[in-house]
Amino acid sequence: MLNVKQVCMSIVAMVTIVSSAAFAQVVSNQTAPGFTLTDTNGQKHSLSDYKGKFVVLEWFNPDCPFVKKHYDSGNMPQLQKQYTAKGVIWLSIDSSAAGKEGYYPSQGLNKFMADKGGLPTEVFADTNGQAGHLYGAQTTPHMFVINPQGALIYQGAIDDTPSADIADLKTAKNYVSAALDAAMNGKPVAVSTTKSYGCSVKY
Fold first, then answer.
1. CATH code of the domain in which 98 resides
2. Which domain holds residue 182?
3. Which of 186, 179, 116 is nearest to 144 (CA)?
4. What are the φ/ψ torsions at residue 117 (nearest 5 degrees)?
5. 106 assigned to some structural domain
6. Is residue 11, in this structure, part of any structural domain at all?
7. Which residue in 16, 17, 91 sits closest to 59, CA to CA?
8. Residue 9's pLDDT is what?
9. 3-class secondary structure for 144-192?
C-alpha cells in the first residue's frame, strides 16, 4: 500500500507528464518537420540536407539570463564542441523578432558566438519565427534532437535544473547529452520529452 509521500510523488509525476505532453507541439519519436533557413553568413540550409546525421536544434537568445548561464559557463560551447566532433550537426536558432529582446542582425549573432566561444555548425536568425513556430519553441534555451532517420528523439529542457545560476550546472542532469549518448550507442532514449525552461521566445 502506498504511503502519503509515495502518493504525492506519483501525483507530481503525473502532472509533469501531462504538462510536458500539452506543451509539446511536435511529437517525439515521429518525423521531425522540415524547414529551410538562411544562416548568418547568407547561405541557405534545409533540415533534409543533414539526413543520415544526428541534428541538434538549439533555440537561443543572447540577452536571456538562462542562455547566458549556459554560454558564460562554457557549458553550451563545450556540448557543441563535443558532439560536432562526433559528426553531430548543431543548429543554433534565434527566433526573436525585429525590435524584440534578443533580436540581433546576423553579424551580431556571429559576434555573440565568437565572444562566447560558441561552436555550432550553423547559426540562424529566424526573425519571422518560421522554424520556431513549426517546432513550438517556447523558451530559450529549447532543445530538440533528431536522429539520422529524421525522427525527433528528444525535445524540451537542456537539463533537469530550471535555474539561471551557473553553480547549479554541477549537479544538473543534461537531457541532450543523455539522449545523444544513448542513441549514438544504439540504446533507447530514456526521456524523450520534458518541459523546457528559460525566457519566452520573443516572436
1. 3.40.30.10
2. 50-200
3. 179
4. 75, 20
5. yes
6. no
7. 91
8. 32
9. EEECCCCEEEEEECCECCCCCCHHHHHCCCEHHHHHHHHHHCCCCCCCC
Radius of gyration of the chain (CA): 17
Distance from C-alpha of 158 to C-alpha of 79, rounded to nearest angstrom: 11
Q: Are 124 and 38 in contact (CB under 8 A)?
A: yes
Task: Taking the CA atoms of 108, 100, 57 and 70 in sequence, report the sign of the dihedral they define.
Answer: positive
In the block, which residue shows the cell 543548429? 91
Per-residue pLDDT of 140-155, as tens digits, reads 999 999 999 999 999 9
Contact partners, residue 13, CB within 8 Å, separation at least 6:
none
Beta strands in the chain (DSSP E): 36-38, 44-46, 55-59, 89-94, 122-125, 139-140, 142-146, 152-156, 199-200
Q: How many domains does the chain contain in total? A: 1
Let me know if residue 2 belongs to a domain: no
Buried b / exposed e along 100-129 (16+ C-beta atoms within 10 A): eebbbebeebbebbeebebbbbbbbbbbee
Instruction: Count the alpha carbons within 13 Å of 125 in the hemisphere toward its beta carbon.
Output: 20
Per-residue confidence (pLDDT) for residue 167, from 0 to 100: 97
**Do 58 and 91 meet the contact criterion of CB atoms below 8 Å apart?**
yes
Question: Considering the entire predicted model, what is its pTM?
Answer: 0.88
d(CA 128, CA 167): 35
Q: Is position 17 within any domain?
A: no
Residue whose cell numbers read 548568418: 40
